[in-house]
């Protein structure tokens, strides 16, 4: 049985841990409100732009001069997966969920005979996936380290993907990240970036819907306009995903630190009970020794 001194040391240690987890919870909660506001504000713009570009992809389908970012290379051999995680831990299963989905997607694609390449954004994703998939890992990019997400980060990643695509390094590009639902729920999402997916329901009654499809007139011309719109859309989709991931990270960390603080309080109560029982037993033994000694005299 541990001594009273050891129990006091354990209680003090757990109390210090609770102070740290409580402070981290408050910091995450303060960051969450700002990150959530940014993520929710980006959704309408990103969704509208994604829908418009998907309709453009459907409208220009089959045209020989359609930009490649719309229709892709026409091949389905090499897939690039971009896994977005955080740079810091202590966020529950936030990073593990992205890593798990990434492994599942890699296993599915490789099972279909596809060549898979992996690019990680965030240190935790590189740590978890880099050991297993070192042979297919293209690069390890840093995350936001808990800071506000700047558009330049998404712009740089978008330019990197466009450059890789133009060099023929992949045919399909998919982004895997955590979508923010609320402080307790972050859902891993698999979103195709290149080529742009067709609008939902585009394959249903295609002939009947052809007359209802939007018609676009391009000014100055289709090539010039889409050459600027497509990279911008790619950067915007990445930016929205990074904002979702940042909000999810703070929500997951706040929830994890709240649970840790609660568990620390329970551990303190249990250790305090053991300490009081041990102290009471020691006092009782001392009294018995005193009484026994007095009776012997």
UniProtKB/TrEMBL annotation:
**SUPFAM superfamilies referenced in this protein's UniProt entry, alphabetically:** ATP synthase (F1-ATPase), gamma subunit
According to its UniProt entry, the protein's GO biological process terms are: proton motive force-driven plasma membrane ATP synthesis
InterPro entries attached here? ATP_synth_F1_ATPase_gsu (IPR035968), ATP_synth_F1_gsu (IPR000131), ATP_synth_F1_gsu_CS (IPR023632)
Any one Gene Ontology molecular-function term assigned to this protein's record? proton-transporting ATP synthase activity, rotational mechanism
**Entry's localization field:** Cell membrane; Membrane
> What keyword terms does UniProt attach to this protein?
ATP synthesis, Cell membrane, CF(1), Hydrogen ion transport, Ion transport, Membrane, Transport
Which CDD domains does the record cross-reference, listed alphabetically?
F1-ATPase_gamma (cd12151)
Q: How does it sit in the membrane?
A: Peripheral membrane protein
Checking Pfam families in the record gives: ATP-synt (PF00231)
Any one cellular-component term (Gene Ontology): proton-transporting ATP synthase complex
Keyword Transport on entry:
yes
Entry's family note? Belongs to the ATPase gamma chain family.
What is the recorded function of this protein according to its Swiss-Prot or TrEMBL entry?
Answer: Produces ATP from ADP in the presence of a proton gradient across the membrane. The gamma chain is believed to be important in regulating ATPase activity and the flow of protons through the CF(0) complex.
Q: How does it assemble?
A: F-type ATPases have 2 components, CF(1) - the catalytic core - and CF(0) - the membrane proton channel. CF(1) has five subunits: alpha(3), beta(3), gamma(1), delta(1), epsilon(1). CF(0) has three main subunits: a, b and c.
> Which protein is depicted?
ATP synthase gamma chain
Q: Which organism is it from?
A: Tanticharoenia sakaeratensis NBRC 103193
From the UniProt record, report the name of the gene that encodes this protein. atpG
């Amino acid at each position: 049985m541990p001594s009273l001194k050891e129990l006091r040391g354990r209680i003090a240690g757990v109390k210090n841990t609770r102070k740290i987890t409580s402070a981290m919870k408050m910091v995450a909660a303060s960051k969450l409100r700002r990150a959530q506001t940014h993520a929710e504000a980006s959704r309408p713009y990103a969704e509208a732009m994604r829908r418009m570009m998907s309709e453009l992809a459907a409208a220009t389908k089959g045209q020989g001069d359609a930009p490649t970012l719309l229709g892709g290379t026409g091949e389905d051999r090499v897939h690039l997966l971009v896994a977005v995680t955080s740079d810091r831990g202590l966020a529950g299963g936030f990073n593990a969920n992205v890593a798990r989905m990434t492994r599942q997607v890699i296993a599915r694609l490789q099972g279909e005979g596809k060549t898979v390449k992996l690019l990680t954004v965030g240190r935790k994703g590189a740590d978890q996936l880099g050991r297993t998939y070192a042979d297919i890992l293209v690069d390890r990019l840093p995350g936001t380290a808990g800071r506000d997400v700047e558009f330049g980060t998404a712009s740089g990643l978008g330019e990197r993907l466009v450059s890789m695509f133009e060099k023929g390094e992949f045919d399909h590009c998919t982004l895997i990240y955590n979508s923010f639902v609320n402080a307790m729920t972050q859902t891993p999402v698999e979103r195709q970036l290149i080529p742009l997916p067709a609008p939902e329901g585009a394959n249903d009654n295609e002939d009947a819907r052809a007359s209802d499809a939007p018609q676009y007139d391009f000014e100055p011309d289709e090539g010039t306009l889409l050459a600027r719109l497509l990279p911008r859309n790619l950067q915007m989709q990445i930016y929205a995903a990074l904002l979702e991931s940042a909000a999810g990270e703070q929500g997951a960390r706040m929830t994890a630190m709240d649970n840790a603080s609660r568990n620390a309080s329970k551990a303190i109560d249990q250790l305090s009970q053991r300490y009081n029982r041990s102290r009471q037993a020691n006092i009782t033994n001392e009294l018995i020794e005193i009484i026994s000694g007095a009776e012997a005299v």
